[in-house]
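Honest question from a wet-lab person: if I give you the sequences of every part of a complex, can you actually get the arrangement of the whole thing, not just the pieces? Trying it with mine:
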Amino acid sequence: MGQAKEVLLEVKNLVTEFKTESETVKAVNNISFTLNRGETIGIVGESGSGKSVTSLSVMKLIPNPPGRISSGEIIYHSRNNGAVDLVKASSKEMREYRGNEIAMIFQEPMTSLNPVYTCGDQVMEAIMLHQKVTKKEARAKTLELFKKVQLPRPEDILDTYPHQISGGQKQRVMIAMAMSCNPSILIADEPTTALDVTVQKTILDLMLELQRDNDMGIMFITHDLGVIAELADKVVVMYKGKIVEQGSVYDIFSNPQHPYTKGLLACRPPLNKRLHFLPTVNNFMELNEAGEIIEKTQSIQEVLKSAVVTKEERDAQHKELYERTKILELSNIKTYFPINKSMFGRAKDFVKAVDDISFDVYEGETLGLVGESGCGKTTLGRTILRLIEPTSGIIKFRGQDITNLNSTDMRNLRKDIQIIFQDPYSSLNPRITIGDAIMEPMIVHGILANNAERKARVMELLKRVNMTEQQFYRYPHEFSGGQRQRICIARALALQPKFIICDESVSALDVSVQAQVLNLLNELKKEFKFTYIFISHDLSVVKFMSDRMVVMNKGKVEEMGDADEICNNPQTDYTRKLINSIPKGQLEDIKASIDKKKIYMAEA
Amino acid sequence: MLKFILKKFFEGSLVLFGVVTVIFFLFNVLPGDPATVMLGQRANKDAIEAINRDLGRDKPLITQYFMYLNDLSPLSFHNADNKKSAYYLDNDKYEHVKLFSLGDGGQVILKKPYLRRSYITKRKVSEVIYETLPETAVLAFSSILVASIFGIFLGIIAAIKKDTFFDRLALVLSALGMSAPAFFVAILISWLFGYILSDYTGLSPIGSLYTNDVWQGEMLDLKNLILPTITMGMRPLAVIVQLTRSSLLDVLSQDYIRTARAKGLPGYKVLVKHALKNALNPVVTAISGWFAGLMAGAVLVERIFSWKGIGNEVFEALSKNDLPLVMGSTIVFALIFVVINIIVDITYGILDPRVRRAK
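Yes, you can. This is the full assembly:
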């Protein structure tokens, strides 16, 4: 790299506060970092670490009240005005930079575009705001941008409304919008978190390419270190509003200093190893009562070593497992949804969400179900519970055909089969205390004699999922995403089920929290002898959890077999694509991408 | 889009058919003999029978129902020859164009729906409605217009100035406006501005759109519109303020508003272009619902201000058991609701492209 790089942004001792009724919280507490031209800086941390607040502070989009930047400087080296302190800039000045020199893309492409304007109009609006061009020129430029971000049928998408295109395509429109005025800085706030891994990979590739072409500085905010391994030059690790570690990406990955960084690096499920449990941040550090970090002197390798399951252990366990009885048998399940109804409500066409799927699940097994969004895995999960009625096929539970069970019998059966949903935020009623929420299914199914006994049982369950008894009377909004998911797990456990379907149960969680929840699910399985069907779009998570794995694509089984076997030796292109798009964060890959960047720089 | 509109019209006509059926059977099982109502003290057996025969009331209920439907339908079947027939093509009743004959005096005609005649005044119900409905429409329209303009405006300001003194004031006043009963407010306003303060306001406590001047005959008197408009507009105004406020606050917290700001758009543009178009959907529903409601439910206000609208007419007809007028007006009210709902559905499509595709 050699030559000194042009500095774009210097954040110095930035403090951003939020006033709540009782106290003032420093969401960002005295942080400093520098971003150079042509460089990507990854800001990593779990939810609540202040990483998003940092990015919004730079844009000065902190909602005020309750938030405000209380001290520090954000020096931006502008194209025309030289160095300016954005903290002191007026709102009129800020508008000149926003979208023009500093652009931003957000986490939720689904909700970040205005539903009532076409994609083209929304990008054109940004162009016409900052550049003196006619509508026609803006349209032509938008079309060019759409081609550049590799949108399919760019001419059509100009006049398409956001709800008519997929999530990945929406994120491409957002990127086109951000790129429209050739910004010096692109702030990307978890741009791929809401997307499938396969889509994530294409978006990351696109960002890398755009950065090379335009020589931008990118601030990439994420909870997952793996995502930025091959993209970032520098990494800033944030924890509770402070920077705990920063350095070059290679240094961070090869030799992490802070225990929190170690935890973040270790908590992603590996594809090449089979583990008992996933290391979490807690394996590397503890908090004392004053909230100070106490380090445990353990390296990542040491922790991983203690967790590994050998091939012999696994084989022995499987031999015993597959001699047991089948708890669930699916034969030729089809679930079709009608589209294009005729005038009198008769369906003309169908979406074949689940198209002729058969497999068995053994007692005590964890069966993984993996595929991209829209492949039918969630529909299949709900069909098994008959929350959606199958169009044809037979579902047998413990040898009993439940396909035509009447609703009373089915309701009794549901006690034995529980489901844990994806979104811990919307699957709990905000007006019911969590204690009551866990108790409700027990009352419905008449489990235990009276409410006093049930309450005692709920207390036990809460403790079992690592929550406290005092939390019985709290409401869902007082809990974080990970805690809520544990509450949902406790609710499922309340009925003492034998069979649990986890439908993307950890997809909405940060990787560090995800690891904790996955470990909990495995501990509970051991303790209560559950059988799981584990549904996720993330192959590495499914692989970590499952004995056998079913890869689904377009409603059909693409591949089925031993989870390790599929990962080591995938048989179909689709499975290979899924495996390749998982960010692995391997040192060799990081090195290769750094070398690639060097070659590119030398050429330029 | 055309298919969508046609579908809405089809559904609307089904609703209307249902309403007609319910109204017919509802009013025909009510006690009360129209002949006695019409004849009053002159009633004797022969006269009563003659009237019942004329009205078709000597026939079974189901036949009467079909006769009523035949009268209402724009395309109908009649007998041109036999004066005794229940379906006799009476030129007094039907303003029609003959389409084709069926033989034996049978005729298929295209006509204005015939809502029959008032028992009391013997006037055609359609004439009465034709005369009074515009007055009600003027009043309802001016009320909803005033309520919408001020309501949306105040709602926007309350949302922008959330948690300030103005916002709280707007909320308190709109809560007051919503909870005040119409009959009370009408009397209060009429008395206060039309009587106590009439020297300053120059308004009268009662009055209609047209007044009979001794010298100039019937003339338009727009200032009579002011007090009833305020009275009727008050509750919709209060509802619209609150709805605009909450809907706008909801939209302003959406991600795409942050996107618009991140583009560098100035605040007013974010508000007008990106927020309002999304926020107005529920407001449009409320406004149209209220408008339809005002068309039909202005009875109390019209009564108190002696406004010569359809509400006032229905009130009198009800107290005199004048069934054709009551039934006719009710069907017209239903028609208004159906038409306004179709317009709202189409407006939705314009405001929100997601609705367009869903259909």
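Two things worth pointing out. Chain A touches chain B through 30 residues (CB under 8 Å). The radius of gyration of chain A is 26 Å.
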